[in-house]
Amino acid sequence: MSPTTEQDALVNRTQMVKIAREFNLFVSKGTIHRWANEADFPLAVGKEGKYLLYYLDDFVRFLKQRLRKIQEEH
């Protein structure tokens, strides 16, 4: 098995909360679930069709867009 690269890393919604906090964006798991219903949220990539997993780099890109949008509003 090859080592997982940053580009191939998969995260679940609980891990997304921790990643968002690293960007100083303090959100709850409910906020992540609400964001998942938006059109620009990264598409889910299932693992064996059982889990909602997302590519890490797609989620980080989404967070940066979200932060930019928040900063423009304030």
Would you kindly provide a written description of the structure presented here, covering whatever features stand out?
The longest helix has 18 residues, at 56-73. With 74 residues, this protein is mainly α. The termini are far apart. The chain has one domain (10-73). The model has no long low-confidence stretch (mean pLDDT 88). It is globular. The protein has a two-stranded antiparallel ribbon. Helices cover 47% and strands 5% of the residues.
Question: Helices and strands in order, then pairings?
Answer:
Elements: E1 10-11, H1 13-22, H2 29-35, E2 54-55, H3 56-73
Fraction of residues in helix: 40-55%
Q: Mean pLDDT, nearest integer?
A: 88
Question: If strands are numbered along the chain, what order do they take across the biggest sheet?
Answer: 1-2
From the alpha-carbon coordinates, what is the Rg to the nearest angstrom?
Answer: 13 Å
How far apart the termini lie comes to 47 Å
* Count of beta strands: 2
Q: List SSEs in N-to-C order.
A: EHHEH
Helix/strand class: mainly alpha
- Our estimate of the beta-strand percent is 5-15%
Number of helical stretches of at least 4 residues:
3
Major sheet size, sense and barrel closure: 2 strands, antiparallel
Uncertain residue segments: none
Q: Note the overall shape.
A: globular
Number of domains: 1
